[in-house]
Design a protein that fits this description.
This protein is α/β, with parallel strands linked by helices. The chain contains eleven helices and eight strands. Helix 2 crosses helix 4 and helix 5 packs across helix 6. The structure holds 3-methyl-2-oxobutanoic acid and sodium ion (NA). Pathway: Cofactor biosynthesis; (R)-pantothenate biosynthesis; (R)-pantoate from 3-methyl-2-oxobutanoate: step 1/2.
Protein backbone atom coordinates (compact mmCIF):
# COMPACT_ATOMS: atom_id res chain seq x y z
CA UNK A 1 0.00 0.00 0.00
CA UNK A 2 1.07 3.52 -0.79
CA UNK A 3 0.75 6.65 1.33
CA UNK A 4 -2.70 8.26 1.06
CA UNK A 5 -2.44 11.82 -0.22
CA UNK A 6 -5.01 14.55 -0.63
CA UNK A 7 -5.48 13.81 -4.34
CA UNK A 8 -6.34 10.18 -3.57
CA UNK A 9 -9.35 11.32 -1.53
CA UNK A 10 -10.55 13.46 -4.40
CA UNK A 11 -10.09 10.55 -6.83
CA UNK A 12 -12.07 8.31 -4.47
CA UNK A 13 -14.91 10.84 -4.50
CA UNK A 14 -14.82 10.90 -8.30
CA UNK A 15 -15.08 7.10 -8.35
CA UNK A 16 -17.90 7.15 -5.79
CA UNK A 17 -15.77 5.33 -3.16
CA UNK A 18 -16.16 6.30 0.47
CA UNK A 19 -13.29 6.60 2.93
CA UNK A 20 -12.86 6.38 6.69
CA UNK A 21 -11.20 8.80 9.09
CA UNK A 22 -10.60 8.41 12.83
CA UNK A 23 -8.89 10.49 15.45
CA UNK A 24 -5.56 9.21 16.80
CA UNK A 25 -3.37 10.72 19.49
CA UNK A 26 -0.56 8.21 20.04
CA UNK A 27 1.45 5.30 18.68
CA UNK A 28 -0.61 2.12 19.11
CA UNK A 29 -3.95 3.54 18.05
CA UNK A 30 -2.28 5.17 15.04
CA UNK A 31 -0.46 1.95 14.05
CA UNK A 32 -3.57 -0.18 14.47
CA UNK A 33 -5.88 2.15 12.53
CA UNK A 34 -3.27 2.52 9.78
CA UNK A 35 -2.97 -1.28 9.59
CA UNK A 36 -6.79 -1.50 9.38
CA UNK A 37 -6.71 0.72 6.28
CA UNK A 38 -8.24 3.85 7.79
CA UNK A 39 -7.38 6.43 5.13
CA UNK A 40 -7.15 9.55 7.30
CA UNK A 41 -5.93 10.03 10.89
CA UNK A 42 -6.82 13.27 12.65
CA UNK A 43 -4.82 14.38 15.65
CA UNK A 44 -7.89 16.24 16.83
CA UNK A 45 -8.05 19.08 19.29
CA UNK A 46 -10.47 16.60 20.86
CA UNK A 47 -7.26 15.39 22.55
CA UNK A 48 -8.23 18.15 24.97
CA UNK A 49 -11.09 16.03 26.35
CA UNK A 50 -9.84 12.57 25.30
CA UNK A 51 -6.20 12.77 26.41
CA UNK A 52 -5.74 15.80 28.66
CA UNK A 53 -8.86 15.47 30.80
CA UNK A 54 -10.51 18.79 29.95
CA UNK A 55 -14.28 19.14 29.54
CA UNK A 56 -14.11 20.80 26.12
CA UNK A 57 -11.69 21.29 23.24
CA UNK A 58 -11.07 24.93 24.15
CA UNK A 59 -8.15 24.67 26.63
CA UNK A 60 -5.75 22.51 24.57
CA UNK A 61 -2.65 24.30 23.25
CA UNK A 62 -0.40 23.98 20.21
CA UNK A 63 2.44 22.86 22.49
CA UNK A 64 0.25 20.07 23.87
CA UNK A 65 -0.89 18.86 20.44
CA UNK A 66 2.49 18.86 18.68
CA UNK A 67 4.01 15.87 20.54
CA UNK A 68 0.83 13.84 19.90
CA UNK A 69 0.97 14.79 16.21
CA UNK A 70 4.62 13.69 16.08
CA UNK A 71 3.73 10.34 17.67
CA UNK A 72 0.95 9.70 15.16
CA UNK A 73 2.90 10.76 12.07
CA UNK A 74 5.82 8.53 13.12
CA UNK A 75 3.49 5.58 13.63
CA UNK A 76 1.26 5.70 10.53
CA UNK A 77 3.09 4.63 7.36
CA UNK A 78 0.04 4.83 5.06
CA UNK A 79 -2.60 7.22 6.39
CA UNK A 80 -2.93 10.90 5.62
CA UNK A 81 -2.14 12.62 8.94
CA UNK A 82 -4.12 15.78 9.72
CA UNK A 83 -3.04 18.23 12.42
CA UNK A 84 -5.97 20.06 14.04
CA UNK A 85 -5.31 23.74 14.74
CA UNK A 86 -6.54 24.47 18.28
CA UNK A 87 -8.72 27.36 19.47
CA UNK A 88 -6.93 30.70 19.35
CA UNK A 89 -4.02 29.54 17.18
CA UNK A 90 -5.31 30.69 13.77
CA UNK A 91 -8.42 32.86 14.02
CA UNK A 92 -6.80 36.26 14.48
CA UNK A 93 -5.05 36.47 11.09
CA UNK A 94 -3.88 34.46 8.07
CA UNK A 95 -0.29 35.08 9.23
CA UNK A 96 -1.04 33.59 12.64
CA UNK A 97 -2.67 30.60 10.95
CA UNK A 98 0.33 30.10 8.66
CA UNK A 99 2.84 30.27 11.51
CA UNK A 100 0.84 27.74 13.53
CA UNK A 101 0.28 25.40 10.59
CA UNK A 102 4.00 25.41 9.75
CA UNK A 103 4.71 24.10 13.26
CA UNK A 104 2.28 21.20 12.73
CA UNK A 105 4.13 20.19 9.57
CA UNK A 106 7.72 20.88 10.70
CA UNK A 107 7.54 19.79 14.34
CA UNK A 108 4.50 17.49 14.22
CA UNK A 109 5.14 15.79 10.89
CA UNK A 110 1.50 16.35 9.84
CA UNK A 111 0.72 16.29 6.11
CA UNK A 112 -1.98 18.93 6.27
CA UNK A 113 -4.02 20.87 8.84
CA UNK A 114 -7.67 21.27 9.74
CA UNK A 115 -9.28 24.48 10.91
CA UNK A 116 -12.82 25.38 11.92
CA UNK A 117 -14.89 27.92 10.03
CA UNK A 118 -16.47 28.69 6.67
CA UNK A 119 -16.58 32.02 4.85
CA UNK A 120 -14.71 33.82 7.65
CA UNK A 121 -11.70 31.48 7.20
CA UNK A 122 -11.24 32.15 3.48
CA UNK A 123 -8.14 34.40 3.95
CA UNK A 124 -6.52 31.75 6.19
CA UNK A 125 -7.28 28.91 3.76
CA UNK A 126 -5.96 30.94 0.81
CA UNK A 127 -2.67 31.82 2.49
CA UNK A 128 -2.00 28.30 3.78
CA UNK A 129 -2.82 26.73 0.43
CA UNK A 130 -0.59 29.22 -1.41
CA UNK A 131 2.15 28.47 1.11
CA UNK A 132 2.10 24.75 0.42
CA UNK A 133 -0.04 23.56 3.31
CA UNK A 134 -3.18 21.60 2.35
CA UNK A 135 -6.21 22.63 4.40
CA UNK A 136 -9.18 20.56 5.56
CA UNK A 137 -12.02 22.89 6.54
CA UNK A 138 -14.62 22.12 9.23
CA UNK A 139 -18.12 23.64 9.03
CA UNK A 140 -21.57 23.12 10.51
CA UNK A 141 -21.22 22.74 14.26
CA UNK A 142 -17.70 23.86 15.14
CA UNK A 143 -16.88 22.92 18.77
CA UNK A 144 -14.33 25.72 19.25
CA UNK A 145 -17.22 28.20 18.75
CA UNK A 146 -19.47 26.42 21.25
CA UNK A 147 -20.04 29.60 23.26
CA UNK A 148 -20.77 31.71 20.19
CA UNK A 149 -23.12 29.07 18.73
CA UNK A 150 -25.02 28.66 22.00
CA UNK A 151 -24.06 25.07 22.81
CA UNK A 152 -24.01 21.76 20.95
CA UNK A 153 -26.73 22.01 18.32
CA UNK A 154 -27.41 20.94 14.76
CA UNK A 155 -26.46 23.65 12.24
CA UNK A 156 -28.17 24.19 8.91
CA UNK A 157 -31.80 23.35 9.72
CA UNK A 158 -34.42 25.11 7.58
CA UNK A 159 -33.29 28.46 6.24
CA UNK A 160 -29.81 28.00 7.74
CA UNK A 161 -29.15 25.27 5.15
CA UNK A 162 -28.10 27.97 2.70
CA UNK A 163 -25.41 29.16 5.14
CA UNK A 164 -23.87 25.68 5.29
CA UNK A 165 -23.90 25.49 1.48
CA UNK A 166 -22.34 28.96 1.21
CA UNK A 167 -19.63 28.02 3.74
CA UNK A 168 -18.86 24.81 1.85
CA UNK A 169 -18.56 26.62 -1.49
CA UNK A 170 -16.42 29.35 0.05
CA UNK A 171 -13.87 26.95 1.56
CA UNK A 172 -13.70 24.97 -1.69
CA UNK A 173 -13.12 28.15 -3.71
CA UNK A 174 -10.43 29.24 -1.21
CA UNK A 175 -8.52 26.02 -1.89
CA UNK A 176 -9.50 23.56 0.86
CA UNK A 177 -8.90 19.95 -0.24
CA UNK A 178 -11.73 18.53 1.89
CA UNK A 179 -14.36 19.71 4.33
CA UNK A 180 -15.67 18.17 7.55
CA UNK A 181 -19.37 18.75 8.23
CA UNK A 182 -20.42 18.27 11.85
CA UNK A 183 -24.04 17.96 13.02
CA UNK A 184 -25.69 19.03 9.78
CA UNK A 185 -29.03 17.55 8.58
CA UNK A 186 -28.43 14.56 6.31
CA UNK A 187 -30.21 16.03 3.30
CA UNK A 188 -28.23 19.28 3.54
CA UNK A 189 -24.91 17.40 3.84
CA UNK A 190 -25.85 15.22 0.86
CA UNK A 191 -26.63 18.31 -1.22
CA UNK A 192 -23.31 19.92 -0.25
CA UNK A 193 -21.55 16.67 -1.19
CA UNK A 194 -23.19 16.65 -4.62
CA UNK A 195 -22.40 20.31 -5.29
CA UNK A 196 -18.72 20.24 -4.26
CA UNK A 197 -15.91 18.61 -6.18
CA UNK A 198 -13.77 18.26 -3.02
CA UNK A 199 -14.59 15.40 -0.63
CA UNK A 200 -16.91 15.96 2.32
CA UNK A 201 -16.41 14.13 5.61
CA UNK A 202 -19.37 13.77 7.93
CA UNK A 203 -19.74 13.49 11.68
CA UNK A 204 -23.42 13.57 12.54
CA UNK A 205 -24.13 14.54 8.92
CA UNK A 206 -25.71 11.36 7.54
CA UNK A 207 -24.38 8.88 5.00
CA UNK A 208 -24.50 11.16 1.99
CA UNK A 209 -20.96 12.40 2.65
CA UNK A 210 -17.85 11.10 0.86
CA UNK A 211 -16.15 10.06 4.12
CA UNK A 212 -16.98 9.68 7.80
CA UNK A 213 -15.04 10.58 10.95
CA UNK A 214 -15.47 9.62 14.59
CA UNK A 215 -13.47 10.13 17.77
CA UNK A 216 -11.98 6.69 18.35
CA UNK A 217 -12.61 6.53 22.10
CA UNK A 218 -16.31 7.06 21.33
CA UNK A 219 -16.49 4.56 18.46
CA UNK A 220 -14.63 1.81 20.29
CA UNK A 221 -16.13 2.33 23.74
CA UNK A 222 -13.12 3.50 25.72
CA UNK A 223 -15.06 6.54 26.86
CA UNK A 224 -18.20 5.86 28.87
CA UNK A 225 -21.12 8.14 29.61
CA UNK A 226 -23.49 10.00 27.34
CA UNK A 227 -22.71 9.55 23.66
CA UNK A 228 -23.86 11.81 20.84
CA UNK A 229 -26.66 10.43 18.63
CA UNK A 230 -24.22 10.10 15.71
CA UNK A 231 -21.86 7.61 17.43
CA UNK A 232 -22.01 3.88 16.69
CA UNK A 233 -20.10 1.82 19.28
CA UNK A 234 -18.01 -0.90 17.64
CA UNK A 235 -16.30 -2.28 20.76
CA UNK A 236 -16.33 -2.05 24.54
CA UNK A 237 -12.70 -1.21 25.27
CA UNK A 238 -13.59 0.27 28.66
CA UNK A 239 -15.02 -3.11 29.69
CA UNK A 240 -12.01 -5.01 28.33
CA UNK A 241 -9.50 -2.75 30.13
CA UNK A 242 -11.49 -2.68 33.35
CA UNK A 243 -11.63 -6.50 33.47
CA UNK A 244 -7.92 -6.80 32.65
CA UNK A 245 -6.90 -4.26 35.30
CA UNK A 246 -9.06 -5.98 37.92
CA UNK A 247 -7.71 -9.42 37.03
CA UNK A 248 -4.13 -8.14 37.32
CA UNK A 249 -4.81 -6.47 40.69
CA UNK A 250 -6.52 -9.65 41.96
CA UNK A 251 -3.51 -11.80 40.95
CA UNK A 252 -1.02 -9.42 42.60
CA UNK A 253 -3.05 -9.32 45.82
CA UNK A 254 -3.45 -13.12 45.82
CA UNK A 255 0.27 -13.63 45.18
CA UNK A 256 -0.40 -15.59 41.95
CA UNK A 257 1.43 -13.09 39.73
CA UNK A 258 4.28 -13.28 38.94
CA UNK A 259 4.44 -17.05 38.52
CA UNK A 260 7.55 -19.18 38.21
CA UNK A 261 7.51 -18.67 34.41
CA UNK A 262 7.89 -14.91 34.92
CA UNK A 263 10.72 -15.24 37.39
CA UNK A 264 14.49 -15.24 36.72
O1 LIG B 1 -11.06 17.13 17.07
C1 LIG B 1 -11.80 16.28 16.52
O2 LIG B 1 -11.90 15.12 16.97
C2 LIG B 1 -12.55 16.68 15.31
C3 LIG B 1 -13.36 15.69 14.58
C4 LIG B 1 -14.32 14.88 15.35
C5 LIG B 1 -13.87 16.15 13.28
O3 LIG B 1 -12.43 17.80 14.93
NA1 LIG C 1 -11.36 19.23 16.22
Amino acid sequence: RKRIRTHHLREMKERGEKFAMLTAYEQYAAQTFDEAGIEVLLVGDSASNNVYGNETSLPVTVDELLPLTRAVSRSAPHALVVGDLPFGSYQSSPEQAYATAVRFLKEGGAHCVKLEGGREMVPQIELLTRGGIPVMAHIGFTPQSEHALGGYRVQGRGEAAQRVLDDAKAVEAAGAFAVVMEMVPGDVAAQVTRELSIPTIGIGAGNGCDGQVLVWQDAFGLRTGRMAKFVRQYADLHGVLLEAARAYADDVRAGTFPGPEHTF
